[in-house]
Batch of 4 targets.
Target 1
Amino acid sequence: MGAVILLVVALISGCLANGGQLDLRMPNVKPQHKDTYLCFTTQLNNSLYITGFEPHAKMQTAHHMLLYGCKTPGRQDKVWNCGEMAATANSAYSSGPTCASGAKIIFGWAMDAPSLVLPKDVAFKVGGDSDIDYLVLQIHYKDVSKFLPPSTETDNSGLTLTTTATPLPKTAGIYLLGSSGTLPKKSVEYMETACAFDEDVTIHPISFRTHTHTLGRVVSGFRIRDGKWTEIGRKSPQQPQTFYNVTTPNISVKKGDILAARCTYENTKDHPVNVGPTADDEMCNFYIMYYVDGDKTAERKYCFNSGPPYYSWDEFNGGDMNLEAIPETASTDPTGGKKWIRTGDNTDEQWGERSMDERDTEDLLSYIRYLASLTPNRESQDLYDNY
């Protein structure tokens, strides 16, 4: 169904000039369609340093919440549709991306995840002389039945941010690894991504978050240095999707390293499943929350690849990954200990009755939709519109 975005702009009042609690809550909205996306934005006047996140949402209603930092919001309208690739032609609202420029993911929540407090002396810098002038809360509603007529119920889900106006010595950032692709029917399949880290800063991962939809079984992330694989984090995405402490304490990532992630799926359905923005599609995300000493974070925020059937770690050409050293636990659920072995292949029987040309087109459009849903900007929208 369609995606509808409500964007309500509110200026931070002088009471937050010295920090405090900042509520980002939906203003009693009534989403009317499954897979509706709603956004609420706050303009920032002064420098603030975010040190904690308290969610106010239930997984029965909200599929996920994402907090973005933006240079400018997608439109100046009070209400507009920025579900982008999940939008419908009969939407009552103008269309636009979540951010018109400078989109950065700051925080993510799903599956009734608890609150998060950052380590001592670490904060996300926003407002003031930072490149973030707006905070935008995005909520993906998966079940809107309780908001439909004749019900008068409304929703005020959102986040409470703990902030301070005092500069802190370590600045937090997010690096997101993800994959597009298609899962063959009745199979266990991997979606893999990897990128060389070519930054002039050293980042220190402190926590990680995984995200898939219902078919995901394990998501794992790694740093590869001189051919040695070191785990950053590994989790079942069916557990509460908050940020967890990294599994290798005191790990760092520096220029010349490689970052890699794998999402492992069990597609029990009798048809292929694509990556996409709705709850019936799939996603593959591994978020790294990190800090740097000082205020210069990594310029690159994302690492995406096209996924199966076209991309796996075998296709990486940015350095020596030493694939013989992939940890045997890369697809092992750390909660129950079950190890998932890939069974998918590229046969027409598993991928369905599609010609290669049809498969190329569908997978490319799926990939573009996926990038647009996670990196909302004008370039990804134009790429999709012009394909």
Target 2
Amino acid sequence: MTYILSVKEMKAFHEDGFLIVPKLINQEDVQELLDHTVDIMKGQVTVPGQIDPPPSDATIEEIEQRYVRIHQLHFHLEIHERYLLHSRILDVLEKLIGPDIMAMQTMLFLKAPEQVGQGYHQDSYYIPTRPDTLCGAWIALDDADEENGCVWFIRGTQYEPIYHDAQNVSHDDVNLNGLGKIAAKYPDNEVPAVMKSGDVAFFGGHVIHRSHSNESRTRFRRAFVGHYANARSWTHWGAPLDECRNNNQILARGNTHLPYAVSKFGQNKKRI
């Protein structure tokens, strides 16, 4: 069923730099991804060089701690491409950064109890697009709150430039992280993205954000994250500045004058 973004939601995204859409993904889809994370941890899903079976004598705790996050599995696994191109995610993105959408990246966060977070960073620091239209879509698979290491966004930082020269970006020590001084300009604007399973947070590539360690003893904080941009933005991501890499990005909706990739698993023809 098509999701129609409201004027209030559009306003919130542009004023805050992020938007949480409750219950955008149904629980059947969420459960499929949760079951998939268990299969990964148990070694029932393997991708050479990225996901290997655990040692035969590994304890449950060791199995759960094997991965914090895994990148770009949509190049190898149908389920990751399918959720990267989920129609309700694209419905929202079409209004926020579209109508032409390219799908660029996937990350699967497993974040078991006591696993670490990630310090202040801006996603466009890592994934450049010109003009900069990058937007993340963070699907909560588990309920996420302060105890188990939810994401924290800093309102207003969507208007900050990308700090390409910042040192130790993503370091969890704010005194070492070059974005710590920028974050300090917004002392009352950092808010936890408390989310229920199936909620989705959309956030622009300039927004400074971080997460803390999972302090829970029993709860995971699993999430499936996709990154997208307007399909008419140019990217050299992963290559020298003068090279175009749009041909590696899936055209998820609309059209473009730039090169693009098509779905490896035929998801452009399917809607979930």
Target 3
Amino acid sequence: MGRIGRAALCALVGAVLLAGCAVVEPGKAVPNAQEVERLARPLTSKAVLGDLATVDYCTLLDLGALGDVRLERVRPDFAACMAEVTAAEGRVLLGIGHLSEAPTSVLGQPPDETVSLPHGWKVERFDGLEPGVCYRFLEFSDGVSLQVHATYPEGYPVVPSAALCRLADATIDGVRSWLTTRRVGRLTFREESLGRLDACVLVPEAEVEAALGGAAPVSPEPTGHLCGWGSRWDEPGPAAFLEFAIQELGDADEFAETIGGRPSRVTPLDGGSCLVETPHVHFSATKPYDREFARVEVRPAGGDACAAARALAERIWPALPARPE
């Protein structure tokens, strides 16, 4: 057991065993009582992240922790940060953010490994859940988890799983260090930004159930930028979600359909679901191609998925802020 792990254990077992726990290797500093107490003090997600709705997750990317990599691009989102880096093994896409109540609520199975840390934190590792993806979760003392994943971008050569997991581990180690030593950056939202909304309050649960054709209990996400209803997406059953995101607009002509008074794009998807998107305002004056988007995906109990998605978007779009531009 390392010195930090020993110190945390000492705080947990109490003062009676503290003296015995403080034994260290020759030449190593003995942690004092204040340090032992500090490491044992629980830290919640809000204690280290502050307002969960305005976290700039790109400030948590510590390139120095990744070793010999070159940053190619970085893209902030309401709920995460996506960064592309070039490592010795190839191009890698790193994601940081996507807060959830627990890793199992996202992935639906136990981790391959759990590592306990000071402050009541733990890291949960998922190595072989999906081909070409390595997941890590940093769970805070209140049970809220921050996700890190590493994969390779579409159209690029395959990167070995060992390299992906090495970079995922380095990324989450950098996040841990940042959160305990530095301040988190903040996103700032313009008055009509979707980032100011709570996705779960824009439509009554009964109307979601009507669109899905089945029960649809709500599943809030800690930041408010995403709301889910119904079943998990990796399990059968009716399901829907509303997400606020930042992405490039692309071809505006693709948003040729008008739904709820807004230009919309309707895309049938595999698995019996359908996605409806509408662009909103520019997210940043320095990146004119980046737009805020509202996205609704629906997988109904039966029938036409795109008809159900249109019906739900027809209800939600009028509740969004007006577009001033």
Target 4
Amino acid sequence: MPSAIGGFVAQREALYAAGGGVKAVGSKYYAAYFPSGFASSSTRRVMIALHGTGGAPEAEWNDWKSTLDARGWGFLGLKYLDDATGSYEEEPAIYANIKSMYDEVRAACDFGSASMFVVGFSRGSAQSFGTAYLDAKDRRLITAVGNNSGAWLLNGRPTPTLQPIENTNNLTGMSGTRFWMYCGGQDMEQGFPMCDEMAQAETWVKKYGAPWSGSIATPRARTAASRATRTPFPRCSPTSRA
């Protein structure tokens, strides 16, 4: 099991204390958490979180915990960064691990017919476009994507996973997945307005068939919005086999 580093150590301990856990997937790991309200929810929903540059799923859980608890949503957060080398997995590897993670958790507990949605932060937001496309061609696990301040560079091309859509002018390439996008109006971290980058992504997914859902720009925001397992699986319902 890859160790947590830096500030993520305390966040992992907090995850354990709240009843969550972490488990290896491939050479990486994922964090899982299911609040007490998940099992009794009439409409079960599970967030799949993709962290940002230098991030970790423990941090995403920390940012979202109050919302997860209030709404009874489950949480699965994937680590796709090798902390030792600084290398990131690309969308095909990310999606393969999402499928493995999903199958493992579903086999371990009463998952039900939960609706799955991805929330990507910064780099994770950029990676979520291609991940959703791969899923739309495969298992169709993902029903929606929340993009928090991250896409491909302004006036640049999307990731290699998405470029065949442009190359063949596949106007239905992104159909089947809904997108919500957020940006901070004063976010200039990349040297240009993040909202311009997100507007470019909005135009792109609409062009290639995505059923549009919405976008939010916070005019004065300067940054993106905040955001060794002890049991084999966290308990996601009273009938969990953890």
